[in-house]
Every structure is written in C-alpha cells, then in structure tokens.
Amino acid sequence: MPGQGHGLQLDENLPRRLRSEGSLRDVFAMIKSYMSDRSLTQPPLLVYPQCFMTTTEQYFNDVNETDDVIQQVLDPERISGLEALANGIEKDFPHLDRTVRYYRSIVDMDRARKPMSRIGFLDVGPPPRHGLANVQLPQRAPEPDNHWLQVVFHHSRGRA
After folding, report:
1. Verdict on whether the full-model pTM lies above 0.70
2. Where are the domains of the chain?
C-alpha cells in the first residue's frame, strides 16, 4: 500500500477469531472509480489476511502432492450415446478425426490410467518468504505537461 498504509482508513471486516495486530503482509484491495482518479472511492478492503497464509500454503502443497488415479465410471446408455455421437461425426464430418478419437477414448474402459500430473505453476511461484503482500509499487509517473492547441486560420484572398 502507498506509504505502508500509514494514515489510511482501512476496512478490515474480519471475524473476531481471526483478528490480530495489523500485519504488513495483509493484502488489501484499493478501489477507484476511474483509472485516472488519484483518490480511492472507499477505504482499502482487506481481502487476504496474513493469518490465512499457512493454511493456503498447506492446501496448495496437498493439492500438488497426490498419487490418486481417477477412475472413470459411465452408464451403459451414456457409453452407447457417446459411441453413436462419434460414429455420426465420423460419417458426417470426416475431417474431425481428432474429435472422433477423443470420444472413442472416453468410452474405452481398458485405457491405461495414470496419476494426476503436478500443477506446474505452483512450483514456479515465488519462494514462501516473499508473499503477495511484499509487492511495492513505484511512485506514480508525473502528469504530462499540457500542450495547448494553437489554431491558425488562413483566408483565401481573392479566390471565388
């Protein structure tokens, strides 16, 4: 936040059980009416308190460390419907062979299944000690100087 939030009235609607002393790692949303406005339309809103950080990191770590294999179960009428759809597409639209292969792979119950792959963007993120709250925006660029429009009228002399 600008100036580390000093002098700003904050809107911290947080349940009493989660309240703690204000943390510089809390994430606030600052809302303006227009991008060009220099003032906020309301006090900054607390959208991600620092006390949620450990549980959020634990959730992402749990999501990204699984060996579960998804097992597919389809009703027989659903299988026959998908096969009919694949046959119809193959007959009417022969150029859509990838679509036909996809529908046939869905109904193939003997297809080899493998565990869910890792979610790559979770590994690429910043180290845990640098959270979202450490983002510091640079000072706003100075406004450009006004360039006054100068209009010069030229009259046609003697032309009809």
Report:
1. no
2. 1-57, 67-109
